[in-house]
Amino acid sequence: MGILFLALLGISHVKLLLAAPPLEDYLVRFMANDRLICSGIIVNRRQILTAGYCKPDQHAENFTLVFSDGSTNTVTDSTVSQYYTAKESSDLLILLHLSKVLGEKFTNPPPICQYRPPTEHQVEYWSWNGNILQKKYTPQSTTLECRREIKDPEGVVIGNDIVCLKNMQYSEGCVKNFGIPFVWRNSFCGINILGHNCQIASKADIFVRLRTTN
């Protein structure tokens, strides 16, 4: 009986070790001179997935990556993502390569949506208020609504792999939500590529749909 108990205890211990971290732990802030530049999500122990806007050589500042536990890291290189979205949209997302390998808690990849959230479903919109992560449920816009909102009738920006979320937040300037995800059913479903009221001033925020492609 004692041996059986120890064996069961060992199995439980392994399960605890393999348990996935909370979604918030995958979120990373890109900081330069105490200012938020972008966000991204950890996809493995060596790489961060984020918006193409966040490519390091597009910014005059050298930014530092700040993780949920307060630890920091830096970037050695960046490459176009070819695995986390459709091929037609892969150039909108990049992978940042880390100078230091992350801990074993990130051995398993984060949960990523297997399906596009139905348009009638509200999703969890994440944003930063200083250093505080805020979450709220937000309706989606249909493709046609979103194209009308940002004056893109031909679908040059809003293609099949773009998800638009309604955001009524008032801001006088650009809110740098580049690279922050939205969540549906406890999985990451999209990455913000245009911030909020940045290149396009509108009540719709634009996300590339995430999906694993192999």
TrEMBL record:
The keyword Transcription does not apply. Keywords: Disulfide bond, Hydrolase, Protease, Serine protease, Signal. One of its GO terms (molecular function) is serine-type endopeptidase activity. One of its GO terms (biological process) is proteolysis. Residues 26-210 form the Peptidase S1 domain. Residues 1-19 form the signal peptide. It comes from the Eukaryota. Pfam families: Trypsin. The keyword Kinase does not apply. Gene3D superfamilies: Trypsin-like serine proteases. This is Peptidase S1 domain-containing protein.
